[in-house]
Every structure is written in structure tokens, then in C-alpha cells.
Design brief:
The chain has 103 residues and is an alpha/beta fold. Helices cover 19% and strands 37% of the residues. A hairpin with a 2-residue loop joins β4 and β5. The longest helix has 13 residues. It is globular and about 30 Å long. It starts with a strand and ends in a 9-residue tail after the last strand.
Amino acid sequence: MLALTPAAAEVVSTITSASGMPNTAGLRIAPTRNAEQADGLELELVPAPAQQDQIVSGTGARVFLEPQAAAYLADKVLDGGMDDKGRARFTVIPQADNGAPTV
């Protein structure tokens, strides 16, 4: 199952609480709907998980994984932070590695 670093959990908690959405809100990760990036992932702030979503939570953060995304991310870690302009940035890291592409 996808693991969240404390930094990622803090970013997810920050953006969901600042959004004005209900406390059921979370960050949803799903395969991209863009045909040009068939192997990518997209992130979306949503008010609640879809019925089939896997829910990952940690330290007040809620991340919802679409089934295909859950399978792909099963052995990964989600890390995150805020850039110098206040935008959230996330990175997917293999659980046994220290570097990975940005989501």
C-alpha cells in the first residue's frame, strides 16, 4: 500500500483544510485522462472518495487511490512539500529508493 511521508501528509492536510471542502475531502490520485500521457497520474482535490477508491490516511491527511493507481503505487511512498511560490509538489518514491519522478 502507498505510504505517506510526514511531509506529504502535512501538505495534503494543509491543502484540504484550506480548500473549504468538508472534512471528508482528500487528494485523489488516478491515471491521467490525457491521451498524450497514458502512463501518467493526475492529482485532484475532491470532497470525498469514489466508491471504489482505496483510502490512505495519515496524520490528518486523506489520499484516495483509484484502483489502477492503487495497484501502481502499492510499493511506493508519496513525499511532498511546498515550493517557494506556495504550490504543493509531490514525488513518488519507490519504497527501497531515494529518488523518483515528480507526480
